[in-house]
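[Meeting: bench + compute handoff]

Bench side (C.D.) handed over the final construct sequence. Compute side (W.E.) agreed to return the predicted structure before the next meeting so the bench team could plan truncations. Sequence as handed over:
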Amino acid sequence: MIHDVALSGHVALVTGASRGIGLAIARRLGQMGARVSICSRNQASLEGAESALHAAGIEVLATPADVTREDEISALVRKTQQELGPIDILVNNAGIGIFGPFYEQTEADWDNILNTNLKSVFLMSRAVAPEMIRRKTGQIVNIGSLAGKNTFANGAIYCASKWGLLGLTGCMAEDLRGHGIRVSAICPGSVNTEFSPHAGKDASKMLQPDDVAHAVAALVTQAPGSFISEVQMRPTQKP
């Protein structure tokens, strides 16, 4: 059931939205009145997310897509524009993590993480930017991580992808701000999802997916004369 109309008439595309943070973001934007396009590589999970959003009264388009592939991105963006309308909000949320000592990881691990966490953001943003530039409006939100600000053992490739994401985000913001398009990054600490193991942590004290969704909602409803470049998120209590 729609709670407000702050984003009524807007179209939001959220990647990696079949579960966890992405699904929470899609739900929040839909509750704010947006028509929501979601994608994931996992079709079964995507169908479950679509059903849940429909049940909440949200207009949703679900498309299986691999956001590391330019051809599938083009098809996703085209389908979204045709069925829902021009894309006002892009949330680049899709991400993976493979953890362990860097010297035990493979070239395939590097390619999988960098392609999903970094290349996909470049490809997705490049695909939606021309129409946003033409319309002189739009918002791109990249879901980063505090791993893009801090290093830790067993996180070499993941950290590299998230540090790179913050550099990409900053440059995108400079390239697009003159066209009326805002680009921001959200950097949460550990979030209570199935994304990575959280052995020994109290899940109730961790960030929750809805916390990240709340930050996205704040960014996309910011007054038009300004934008927030980066949000760092931590739990009130250390888990």
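W.E. noted at the follow-up: The chain has a mean pLDDT of 95. C.D. will use this when planning the next construct.
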